[in-house]
Amino acid sequence: MRGDHTETDERAQAFTLEGLIGTVVILTAVLFTLQSVVITPTTGGSVNPERRAQLEAEADDVLTLAGQNNEENVSELSEYIRYWDPDARTFEGASNERVGYGSKTPPGKFGRLLNQTFTLRDRTYNIELRYRMPNDAGETETIPMVYRGQPSDDAVTSTYIVTLYDNQTLTSPGEGRVELWRYGTTETSREGYYPIPNAIDGPVYNVVEVRLTVW
Q1: In what order do the strands lie in the sheet with 156-165?
Q2: Contact call for residues 70 and 78 (beta carbons, < 8 A)
Q3: What pLDDT, on a 0 to 100 scale, did the predictor assign at position 9?
Q4: How confident is the model at residue 127 (pLDDT cuts 50, 70, 90)?
Q5: Would you state the pLDDT for residue 29?
Q6: Can you tell me the distance from the alpha carbon of 77 to that of 166, in angstroms, rounded to the nearest whole number?
Q7: From CA 163, how far away is CA 198, in angstroms rounded?
Q8: pTM of structure
Q9: Cβ atoms of residues 89 and 98 within 8 Å
């Protein structure tokens, strides 16, 4: 009888040990799985290529539609670039020169496209204008049309080129028919202040790159 009890105890201990080993194996597998989930690209904050490609295509479409010619055969983006108030030293209706329109929606068709495509879908965007400086070094400067903060890591940027001409005028209300070449880039300019300079000889005034960054 004593031998039977001893054999039974040994079997019970063996089953208990096997159970513990099995539990450890299961816990190890669970921990490994959790660690794998944490570093998986789709859950670790990395860029989703499909989502990024779609966002970039939408940004391209917005700039293309806004850049279409109007009845005067002039790019509408050109009109927004020239929608400047020399006295306020910023775009007409904007907050200030540092943030442009900031949290406000830009005017006209451009603003409606941005609002429908991005704002109503909880997307954020910045718009800056990059233009040439009047020298032979190929230097450029930028001015914000809309600044809403630092873009995230998965932001996309789309660009559109607009050519300005010497005989064009500012498009903000009350600016009359003063041609661009008569404006200056300092506060003491006789005809008023416009930050984009006359940087190219001949009828072309400047070439401006509109940069739309979305995230």
Answers
A1: 140-146, 125-132, 204-214, 156-165
A2: no
A3: 52
A4: very high
A5: 44
A6: 16
A7: 12
A8: 0.75
A9: no
